[in-house]
Amino acid sequence: MKSMGSNSGAKGTEGGSSRTEGEIQENISENASSNSRTEKEFAKVVIIGGGACGMATATKIRRQSDFDITVLSWDSHTAYSHCGIPFVLGKEIESLKKLIVKPLAFFRENKINVKLNEKVTSIDLKGQVVITGEGTYPFDRLVIATGSLPFIPRESRANILPYGIFTLRSLADGMLFEKALETARTVCIIGGGTIGIECALALTKRGIRTTLITRGDDLLTRQFDSDMSAIVREHLESLGVEVITGESVILPENFWKQKTLILRDRELPADLVLLATGVKPETWLAREAGITIGKAGGIIVNEMLQVKAGEKFLPR
Fold first, then answer.
1. pTM of the predicted model, to two decimals?
2. How far apart are CA 290 and CA 309, in angstroms?
3. Vertex 151, ends 146 and 156: CA angle to 5°?
4. Which of 58, 67, 193, 239 has the fewest Cβ atoms surrounding its Cβ within 10 A?
């Protein structure tokens, strides 16, 4: 700063019009302020994913800055309590809409541009732009918060589930499953984790005959030892849930017509099937953009949560 002032003063003298040190400092301050405003004006943050992580990031950034924030999500809802879905199915919570924590109006009021039902198709790291089916979104900072996808334990000729087989990864999934339950008498739940067990309890409360199947020898194997798992199983069975352990299931391509699951030594009739077999990281966008994926399937980051592309971590 001192060096700049000295040079500016000398130049002014040579030109025949001298400026005081105060005038020079005021001019520098105005330029700095202008540059600061320009930086804020063009600081664009794009967040891919409208789940808990994406929306928490967006609101945190808004509280601490005036950045231009855009959230891109292919979900049809945002800011909702996913873990409450089983309690709606069991009629302990009035409706799925009650799970929405913040309406879209909240984000509009806070100048967070939320784009629902808009799927990102690619990320151009070099050009710093996110591309969707609707348009392009340039960014100065990018947050990848794509979360996870349901793990589907089946191979299929088509990349879709047969009608009558559901997952519960989103609020829209819950709405579809809840509607289908209106005419269902028997439901098979595949997966012995927390979601599978909570849904089994919920459906039993509705008077629906429910079967819970897991390929593991026990329920809740990531949470409990066998002796504790046995208590959970006993409770489920006391409520009328049929629990089958140590079995894999074959889902027929024509389940919508056949309404039958195939086990090792029996066939199991079911009006509907709920897959609660866990999740896997949704990383295909990052992988195609050249971002490094780890052995466990997630995105590799450093202590600053910066992603890695090639041999270095990216600053943005």
1. 0.82
2. 6
3. 115
4. 239
Which class does domain 44-146 fall in? alpha beta
Q: Count the helix, strand and coil residues of the chain and give each as a percent rounded to the nearest 5.
A: 35, 25, 40
Banded pLDDT at 14 (limits 50, 70, 90): very low
- CATH 3.50.50.60 assigned to domain 165-279? The reply is yes
Count of beta carbons in the 10 Å neighbourhood of residue 156: 11
Cα angle 19, 36, 70 (rounded to 5 degrees) comes to: 165
Would you say residue 35 has pLDDT above 80? Answer: no
Give the 3-state secondary structure of residue 289.
Answer: coil
Which tokens in the block code for residue 152? Answer: 């589907």
> Which residues does residue 243 pair with via DSSP β-bridges, in sequence order?
212
Around 107, how many Cα atoms within 13 Å sit in the side-chain half-sphere? 27
Query: Could you tell me where the DSSP H helices lie in the chain?
Result: 2-14, 21-41, 52-64, 85-89, 104-109, 171-181, 194-205, 226-238, 255-258, 284-288
Residue spans of the domains in the chain: they are 2-41, 44-146, 165-279
The single residue listed with the structure tokens 């047969």 is 162
User: How confident is the model over 127-177, as pLDDT tens digits?
Assistant: 999 999 999 999 999 999 999 999 887 654 445 677 899 999 999 999 999
Amino acid code (one letter) for 51: G
Amino acid at residue number 261: L
Cβ neighbours, 10 Å, residue 253: 12
For residue 62, give the 3-state DSSP assignment: helix
Residue 163, Cβ neighbours under 10 Å: how many?
A: 12
- Those residues whose C-beta lies under 8 Å from the C-beta of residue 296, and which sit 6 or more positions away, are none
Range with the poorest average pLDDT among 39-53, 132-146, 223-237: 39-53
* 245 within 8 A of 223, measured Cβ to Cβ: no
Q: What's the CA gap between 78 and 91, in Å, rounded?
A: 22
If you count DSSP H runs as helices and E runs as strands, how many of each does the chain have, helices first? 10, 18
Q: Between these two residues, 162 and 126, which has the higher pLDDT value?
A: 126
Q: Which residue has the tokens 């056949």?
A: 258
> Residue 218 pLDDT > 90, yes or no?
yes
The residue assigned the tokens 């891109």 is 72
